[in-house]
Amino acid sequence: MHAFTLVEVLATVAILAFFAGTIGIVRGAFQLDGEMPRREALKLEHWLNNLMTISNRSGRSFSLICPGNAPDGSIQAEWQNPLRKDTYTSLYGCRFVRYQGSAPVSLYSPQWNAWVPTITIKVSRGRAEYYVVVSQHGRVRTAPKP
Questions:
Q1: Looking at residue 73, which CATH number applies to its domain?
Q2: Domain boundaries, position 106
Q3: Do the domain assignments include residue 27?
Q4: What integer pLDDT is reported at residue 32 of this predicted model?
């Protein structure tokens, strides 16, 4: 009759704990990867709201340049009078694609507190996606579907 020694039992428990930890980390990474577009969309929403606040206070219009067929990890705002550019770059490695509308540029006018034309931006990483919806009335929101 053979009995297991304490060292053998501890070694087996350590190996099982290692594999369980590895599976947990990998599973958590996949869940976190699906969460990235939502986080990025919220950051982009905040950036756009800040731009509109600056525009309303200064009375300066700006154009939002969003990629169309060439997905990219950045969006540009081009201010008028004086000309200046601000760029938002993805912090989580997400891609931004103009989801609706054919115009690559949307203009925000502080005089009317309006966007022309409206725009929906798809924020994606892998298969996961989230949306930033910009209405003509100067409202920006995020949503899991457009």
A1: 3.55.40.10
A2: 37-143
A3: no
A4: 60
User: For residue 5, is it within any domain?
Assistant: no
Q: Which residue bears the tokens 């490695």?
A: 93
2: three-class secondary structure by DSSP: coil
What does the DSSP assignment read for the chain? -----HHHHHHHHHHHHHHHHHHHHHHHHHHHHHHHHHHHHHHHHHHHHHHHHHHHHHT--EEEE--SSS-BSEEEEEETTTTEEEEEE-SSS-EEEEEE-S-SEEEEETTTTEEES-EEEEEEETTEEEEEEE-TTS-EEEES--
Provide φ and ψ at 40, rounded to 5°. Answer: -65, -40
pLDDT in tens, 68-79: 765 678 999 999
Check whether 12 has a pLDDT greater than 70.
yes
CA–CA separation, 51 vs 61, rounded Å?
10
Domain total of the chain: 1
| Contact by Cβ (8 Å): 146, 133 | yes
